[in-house]
Amino acid sequence: MSQSRIVPSRTVLRRGSLPGPLYWLGADLPQERLRIAVVGSRRATPQQLEHAFAFGRDLAELGVIVVSGGALGVDTHALRGALAAEGETPIAPLAVVPASVDAPFPKENLGLYREIVERGGSLCSKVAPDDAHSRGRFHARNDLLVQMVDAVIAVCADRPSGTLHCANSAWRQKVPVFTVPWSPDAPHSAGSHALLYAGARALWPGAPLREAVGALMRDPQGLLQRAAELPLWPVAKAGCATNPQQTFDAVATAWPCYAPGAPAPGLSPGDPPGCDAGLVARLRAELRQAGEHGLTVDELAATTQTDRTAVAATLLNWTLHGGLKRVAGSWYALATASRL
Protein backbone atom coordinates (compact mmCIF):
# COMPACT_ATOMS: atom_id res chain seq x y z
CA MET A 1 0.00 0.00 0.00
CA SER A 2 1.06 3.60 -0.57
CA GLN A 3 2.11 5.89 2.27
CA SER A 4 -0.42 7.84 4.26
CA ARG A 5 -1.03 11.57 4.00
CA ILE A 6 -2.56 14.18 6.27
CA VAL A 7 -5.95 15.51 5.23
CA PRO A 8 -7.85 18.52 6.64
CA SER A 9 -10.37 17.04 9.07
CA ARG A 10 -13.01 19.58 8.03
CA THR A 11 -13.10 17.97 4.59
CA VAL A 12 -14.15 14.55 5.89
CA LEU A 13 -15.98 15.13 9.20
CA ARG A 14 -19.74 15.50 9.28
CA ARG A 15 -19.63 17.23 12.68
CA GLY A 16 -17.20 18.51 15.27
CA SER A 17 -13.47 18.98 14.85
CA LEU A 18 -10.21 17.24 15.71
CA PRO A 19 -7.50 18.71 17.93
CA GLY A 20 -4.78 17.05 15.82
CA PRO A 21 -4.19 15.81 12.27
CA LEU A 22 -6.12 13.09 10.50
CA TYR A 23 -4.06 10.51 8.63
CA TRP A 24 -5.47 9.09 5.41
CA LEU A 25 -4.65 6.26 3.04
CA GLY A 26 -6.49 5.73 -0.24
CA ALA A 27 -9.02 7.69 -2.26
CA ASP A 28 -10.64 10.93 -1.19
CA LEU A 29 -14.03 10.58 0.49
CA PRO A 30 -16.98 11.74 -1.66
CA GLN A 31 -18.75 14.42 0.36
CA GLU A 32 -22.13 13.95 -1.29
CA ARG A 33 -22.47 10.25 -0.46
CA LEU A 34 -24.44 9.04 2.54
CA ARG A 35 -22.16 7.32 5.07
CA ILE A 36 -23.37 4.63 7.47
CA ALA A 37 -21.28 2.86 10.10
CA VAL A 38 -21.80 -0.87 10.63
CA VAL A 39 -20.39 -2.07 13.96
CA GLY A 40 -20.79 -4.97 16.37
CA SER A 41 -19.26 -7.75 18.41
CA ARG A 42 -15.96 -9.43 17.58
CA ARG A 43 -17.49 -12.71 18.82
CA ALA A 44 -20.69 -12.50 16.79
CA THR A 45 -22.60 -15.65 15.83
CA PRO A 46 -22.61 -16.89 12.23
CA GLN A 47 -26.08 -15.43 11.70
CA GLN A 48 -25.04 -12.07 13.11
CA LEU A 49 -22.02 -12.09 10.80
CA GLU A 50 -24.34 -12.85 7.87
CA HIS A 51 -26.37 -9.78 8.79
CA ALA A 52 -23.22 -7.65 8.95
CA PHE A 53 -22.12 -8.87 5.51
CA ALA A 54 -25.61 -8.25 4.09
CA PHE A 55 -25.74 -4.73 5.55
CA GLY A 56 -22.35 -3.93 4.01
CA ARG A 57 -23.28 -5.33 0.60
CA ASP A 58 -26.75 -3.78 0.47
CA LEU A 59 -25.51 -0.36 1.57
CA ALA A 60 -22.73 -0.31 -1.03
CA GLU A 61 -25.17 -1.32 -3.75
CA LEU A 62 -27.41 1.57 -2.67
CA GLY A 63 -24.50 3.96 -3.17
CA VAL A 64 -23.80 4.39 0.54
CA ILE A 65 -20.25 4.50 1.94
CA VAL A 66 -19.90 1.71 4.50
CA VAL A 67 -17.76 2.81 7.45
CA SER A 68 -16.45 0.38 10.05
CA GLY A 69 -13.65 -0.08 12.53
CA GLY A 70 -11.83 -3.01 10.96
CA ALA A 71 -12.01 -5.28 14.02
CA LEU A 72 -12.56 -8.99 13.59
CA GLY A 73 -16.16 -10.13 13.60
CA VAL A 74 -18.93 -7.74 12.55
CA ASP A 75 -16.61 -4.94 11.36
CA THR A 76 -14.69 -7.26 9.05
CA HIS A 77 -17.82 -8.84 7.58
CA ALA A 78 -19.43 -5.44 6.94
CA LEU A 79 -16.34 -4.27 5.04
CA ARG A 80 -16.14 -7.52 3.07
CA GLY A 81 -19.83 -7.21 2.26
CA ALA A 82 -19.25 -3.74 0.83
CA LEU A 83 -16.43 -5.08 -1.34
CA ALA A 84 -18.71 -7.89 -2.55
CA ALA A 85 -21.39 -5.46 -3.75
CA GLU A 86 -22.55 -5.78 -7.33
CA GLY A 87 -24.20 -3.37 -9.72
CA GLU A 88 -23.10 -0.44 -11.80
CA THR A 89 -21.71 1.84 -9.10
CA PRO A 90 -20.93 -0.09 -5.86
CA ILE A 91 -19.10 2.12 -3.39
CA ALA A 92 -15.86 1.01 -1.70
CA PRO A 93 -15.83 1.24 2.11
CA LEU A 94 -13.88 3.27 4.65
CA ALA A 95 -12.08 1.60 7.59
CA VAL A 96 -11.43 3.78 10.65
CA VAL A 97 -8.58 2.09 12.51
CA PRO A 98 -7.21 2.64 16.05
CA ALA A 99 -3.57 2.36 14.90
CA SER A 100 -1.53 3.99 12.16
CA VAL A 101 -2.93 3.52 8.67
CA ASP A 102 0.60 2.60 7.59
CA ALA A 103 0.62 -0.33 10.04
CA PRO A 104 -3.05 -1.20 10.69
CA PHE A 105 -4.16 -4.20 12.68
CA PRO A 106 -5.31 -6.87 13.30
CA LYS A 107 -2.81 -8.63 11.08
CA GLU A 108 -5.56 -10.98 9.88
CA ASN A 109 -7.08 -7.99 8.05
CA LEU A 110 -3.99 -6.68 6.26
CA GLY A 111 -5.20 -8.26 3.02
CA LEU A 112 -8.64 -6.72 3.54
CA TYR A 113 -7.14 -3.27 4.09
CA ARG A 114 -5.03 -3.62 0.96
CA GLU A 115 -8.08 -4.61 -1.08
CA ILE A 116 -10.09 -1.67 0.26
CA VAL A 117 -7.44 0.79 -0.92
CA GLU A 118 -6.95 -0.96 -4.26
CA ARG A 119 -10.71 -0.93 -4.91
CA GLY A 120 -11.04 2.81 -4.36
CA GLY A 121 -11.78 2.84 -0.64
CA SER A 122 -9.71 4.29 2.17
CA LEU A 123 -8.32 3.94 5.68
CA CYS A 124 -8.11 6.73 8.25
CA SER A 125 -6.84 7.24 11.79
CA LYS A 126 -5.87 9.88 14.32
CA VAL A 127 -2.73 7.86 15.13
CA ALA A 128 0.51 9.15 13.59
CA PRO A 129 2.64 6.69 11.58
CA ASP A 130 5.43 6.67 14.20
CA ASP A 131 3.12 6.44 17.23
CA ALA A 132 2.88 3.27 19.32
CA HIS A 133 -0.54 1.67 19.73
CA SER A 134 -2.42 1.91 23.03
CA ARG A 135 -5.64 0.24 24.10
CA GLY A 136 -7.34 3.53 24.96
CA ARG A 137 -7.42 4.48 21.30
CA PHE A 138 -10.34 2.13 20.61
CA HIS A 139 -12.77 4.59 22.21
CA ALA A 140 -11.11 7.49 20.41
CA ARG A 141 -11.50 5.54 17.16
CA ASN A 142 -15.21 5.04 17.88
CA ASP A 143 -15.72 8.76 18.48
CA LEU A 144 -13.92 9.62 15.24
CA LEU A 145 -15.99 7.07 13.32
CA VAL A 146 -19.22 8.67 14.58
CA GLN A 147 -18.00 12.14 13.59
CA MET A 148 -17.71 10.91 10.00
CA VAL A 149 -21.07 9.18 9.46
CA ASP A 150 -24.76 9.96 9.02
CA ALA A 151 -26.02 6.94 10.98
CA VAL A 152 -24.81 3.92 12.97
CA ILE A 153 -26.02 0.32 12.64
CA ALA A 154 -25.12 -1.78 15.69
CA VAL A 155 -25.59 -5.34 14.43
CA CYS A 156 -25.12 -6.93 17.86
CA ALA A 157 -23.55 -5.97 21.16
CA ASP A 158 -22.74 -7.20 24.63
CA ARG A 159 -23.13 -5.17 27.82
CA PRO A 160 -20.74 -3.44 28.28
CA SER A 161 -18.98 -3.24 24.92
CA GLY A 162 -17.21 -0.97 22.50
CA THR A 163 -20.30 -1.14 20.30
CA LEU A 164 -22.41 0.43 23.05
CA HIS A 165 -19.74 3.10 23.51
CA CYS A 166 -20.00 3.84 19.78
CA ALA A 167 -23.80 4.07 20.00
CA ASN A 168 -23.63 6.35 23.03
CA SER A 169 -21.18 8.57 21.17
CA ALA A 170 -23.65 8.67 18.28
CA TRP A 171 -26.51 9.81 20.50
CA ARG A 172 -24.35 12.50 22.07
CA GLN A 173 -23.58 13.78 18.57
CA LYS A 174 -27.23 13.46 17.44
CA VAL A 175 -26.57 10.65 14.97
CA PRO A 176 -29.41 8.13 14.39
CA VAL A 177 -28.76 4.62 15.74
CA PHE A 178 -30.22 1.37 14.37
CA THR A 179 -29.89 -2.16 15.70
CA VAL A 180 -31.13 -5.68 15.00
CA PRO A 181 -33.78 -6.90 17.50
CA TRP A 182 -32.45 -10.41 18.05
CA SER A 183 -34.60 -12.97 19.85
CA PRO A 184 -34.17 -13.08 23.64
CA ASP A 185 -32.01 -16.21 23.56
CA ALA A 186 -29.46 -14.82 21.06
CA PRO A 187 -25.85 -14.45 22.22
CA HIS A 188 -24.38 -10.94 22.12
CA SER A 189 -27.87 -9.41 22.04
CA ALA A 190 -28.17 -7.80 25.49
CA GLY A 191 -26.58 -4.60 24.20
CA SER A 192 -28.83 -4.56 21.14
CA HIS A 193 -31.94 -4.77 23.29
CA ALA A 194 -30.58 -2.10 25.61
CA LEU A 195 -30.25 0.14 22.54
CA LEU A 196 -33.85 -0.58 21.55
CA TYR A 197 -34.90 0.25 25.09
CA ALA A 198 -33.02 3.54 24.82
CA GLY A 199 -34.70 4.47 21.54
CA ALA A 200 -32.71 2.92 18.70
CA ARG A 201 -34.71 1.90 15.64
CA ALA A 202 -35.02 -1.76 14.68
CA LEU A 203 -33.48 -2.78 11.37
CA TRP A 204 -32.93 -5.78 9.11
CA PRO A 205 -31.08 -6.12 5.78
CA GLY A 206 -33.09 -5.91 2.58
CA ALA A 207 -36.32 -3.91 2.37
CA PRO A 208 -36.13 -2.45 5.91
CA LEU A 209 -32.60 -1.20 5.20
CA ARG A 210 -33.66 0.40 1.91
CA GLU A 211 -36.49 2.20 3.70
CA ALA A 212 -34.10 3.40 6.41
CA VAL A 213 -31.66 4.75 3.82
CA GLY A 214 -34.52 6.60 2.15
CA ALA A 215 -35.58 8.09 5.48
CA LEU A 216 -32.02 9.20 6.20
CA MET A 217 -31.84 10.95 2.86
CA ARG A 218 -35.18 12.70 3.43
CA ASP A 219 -35.02 13.68 7.10
CA PRO A 220 -32.16 12.31 9.23
CA GLN A 221 -33.09 14.40 12.27
CA GLY A 222 -36.63 13.09 12.08
CA LEU A 223 -35.31 9.65 12.95
CA LEU A 224 -34.06 11.06 16.24
CA GLN A 225 -37.43 12.58 17.11
CA ARG A 226 -39.83 9.74 16.34
CA ALA A 227 -40.19 6.62 18.43
CA ALA A 228 -39.05 3.36 16.88
CA GLU A 229 -41.66 1.83 14.59
CA LEU A 230 -42.34 -1.90 14.56
CA PRO A 231 -41.37 -3.31 11.14
CA LEU A 232 -43.52 -5.93 9.48
CA TRP A 233 -40.60 -8.34 9.06
CA PRO A 234 -39.93 -11.38 11.25
CA VAL A 235 -37.55 -11.15 14.16
CA ALA A 236 -34.24 -12.90 13.48
CA LYS A 237 -33.51 -16.10 15.37
CA ALA A 238 -30.19 -17.07 16.85
CA GLY A 239 -28.50 -19.45 19.27
CA CYS A 240 -28.44 -20.17 22.98
CA ALA A 241 -29.34 -17.85 25.84
CA THR A 242 -26.92 -15.82 27.90
CA ASN A 243 -29.55 -13.86 29.85
CA PRO A 244 -32.98 -14.00 28.17
CA GLN A 245 -34.74 -12.20 31.03
CA GLN A 246 -32.40 -9.23 30.83
CA THR A 247 -32.95 -8.86 27.10
CA PHE A 248 -36.70 -9.22 27.48
CA ASP A 249 -36.89 -6.53 30.14
CA ALA A 250 -34.65 -4.24 28.07
CA VAL A 251 -36.59 -4.50 24.81
CA ALA A 252 -40.09 -4.39 26.26
CA THR A 253 -40.80 -0.67 26.13
CA ALA A 254 -39.03 -0.07 22.81
CA TRP A 255 -41.86 -1.41 20.66
CA PRO A 256 -45.08 0.55 20.03
CA CYS A 257 -47.17 -2.62 20.11
CA TYR A 258 -46.56 -2.59 23.88
CA ALA A 259 -48.62 0.59 24.12
CA PRO A 260 -52.28 0.25 25.18
CA GLY A 261 -54.57 -0.60 22.29
CA ALA A 262 -51.80 -0.46 19.69
CA PRO A 263 -51.04 -3.93 18.35
CA ALA A 264 -48.79 -4.05 15.31
CA PRO A 265 -50.93 -3.77 12.16
CA GLY A 266 -50.87 -6.54 9.63
CA LEU A 267 -49.24 -9.19 11.80
CA SER A 268 -50.62 -12.65 12.40
CA PRO A 269 -53.07 -13.09 15.30
CA GLY A 270 -52.07 -16.75 15.58
CA ASP A 271 -49.52 -18.42 17.82
CA PRO A 272 -46.08 -16.81 17.75
CA PRO A 273 -43.67 -18.91 15.68
CA GLY A 274 -40.94 -20.80 17.47
CA CYS A 275 -42.78 -20.93 20.82
CA ASP A 276 -44.05 -23.87 22.84
CA ALA A 277 -47.67 -24.35 21.73
CA GLY A 278 -48.74 -25.75 25.10
CA LEU A 279 -47.34 -22.78 26.98
CA VAL A 280 -48.97 -20.35 24.53
CA ALA A 281 -52.32 -22.07 25.07
CA ARG A 282 -51.98 -21.79 28.86
CA LEU A 283 -50.95 -18.15 28.62
CA ARG A 284 -53.83 -17.37 26.27
CA ALA A 285 -56.33 -18.94 28.68
CA GLU A 286 -55.06 -16.85 31.59
CA LEU A 287 -54.97 -13.65 29.54
CA ARG A 288 -58.46 -14.25 28.14
CA GLN A 289 -59.78 -14.53 31.68
CA ALA A 290 -57.92 -11.38 32.76
CA GLY A 291 -59.36 -9.38 29.85
CA GLU A 292 -58.21 -5.81 29.27
CA HIS A 293 -56.72 -5.60 32.76
CA GLY A 294 -53.98 -8.05 31.76
CA LEU A 295 -51.41 -9.88 33.88
CA THR A 296 -47.74 -9.42 34.69
CA VAL A 297 -44.93 -11.76 33.69
CA ASP A 298 -44.64 -12.94 37.29
CA GLU A 299 -48.37 -13.60 37.57
CA LEU A 300 -48.39 -15.56 34.33
CA ALA A 301 -45.38 -17.57 35.44
CA ALA A 302 -47.12 -18.41 38.72
CA THR A 303 -50.52 -19.26 37.27
CA THR A 304 -49.08 -21.44 34.50
CA GLN A 305 -46.44 -22.94 36.83
CA THR A 306 -43.74 -22.13 34.26
CA ASP A 307 -40.23 -20.73 34.59
CA ARG A 308 -40.34 -16.92 34.42
CA THR A 309 -37.64 -16.74 31.74
CA ALA A 310 -39.59 -19.06 29.44
CA VAL A 311 -42.75 -17.01 29.97
CA ALA A 312 -40.91 -13.74 29.35
CA ALA A 313 -39.31 -14.97 26.14
CA THR A 314 -42.66 -16.27 24.86
CA LEU A 315 -44.44 -13.00 25.68
CA LEU A 316 -41.76 -11.01 23.87
CA ASN A 317 -41.99 -13.12 20.71
CA TRP A 318 -45.79 -13.10 20.85
CA THR A 319 -45.95 -9.32 21.27
CA LEU A 320 -43.50 -8.70 18.45
CA HIS A 321 -45.82 -10.70 16.20
CA GLY A 322 -48.85 -8.60 17.16
CA GLY A 323 -50.77 -10.96 19.44
CA LEU A 324 -50.24 -9.10 22.72
CA LYS A 325 -50.07 -5.51 23.95
CA ARG A 326 -48.60 -3.86 27.00
CA VAL A 327 -51.39 -2.17 28.93
CA ALA A 328 -49.58 -0.51 31.83
CA GLY A 329 -46.14 -0.90 33.33
CA SER A 330 -45.44 -4.64 33.26
CA TRP A 331 -49.03 -5.75 32.54
CA TYR A 332 -49.82 -7.63 29.31
CA ALA A 333 -53.10 -8.44 27.60
CA LEU A 334 -54.31 -10.01 24.39
CA ALA A 335 -54.04 -7.43 21.63
CA THR A 336 -57.72 -7.10 20.68
CA ALA A 337 -61.01 -8.67 21.65
CA SER A 338 -61.31 -10.11 18.13
CA ARG A 339 -58.15 -12.09 18.73
CA LEU A 340 -59.51 -13.92 21.77
Question: Could you walk me through the main structural features you see in this protein, from its secondary elements to its overall organization?
Answer:
Helices cover 36% and strands 13% of the residues. With 340 residues, the protein is of the alpha/beta class. The chain folds into two domains: 5-225, Rossmann fold (3-Layer(aba) Sandwich); 255-339, Orthogonal Bundle (Arc Repressor Mutant, subunit A). The strands form two sheets. It has a nine-stranded mixed β-sheet with strand order 1-2-6-5-4-3-7-8-9, sandwiched between helices. A three-stranded antiparallel β-sheet has the order 10-12-11. Strand 5, helix 3 (110-118) and strand 6 form a beta-alpha-beta unit. The protein is elongated and about 70 Å long.
Summarize the structure in short.
This protein is of the alpha/beta class.
Radius of gyration equals 22 Å
Structural class: alpha/beta
Which regions have little confidence, pLDDT < 50, spanning 5+ residues? 226-269
Strand order of the largest sheet: 1-2-6-5-4-3-7-8-9
Biggest sheet descriptor: 9 strands, mixed
Give the overall average pLDDT: 80
Number of helices: 12
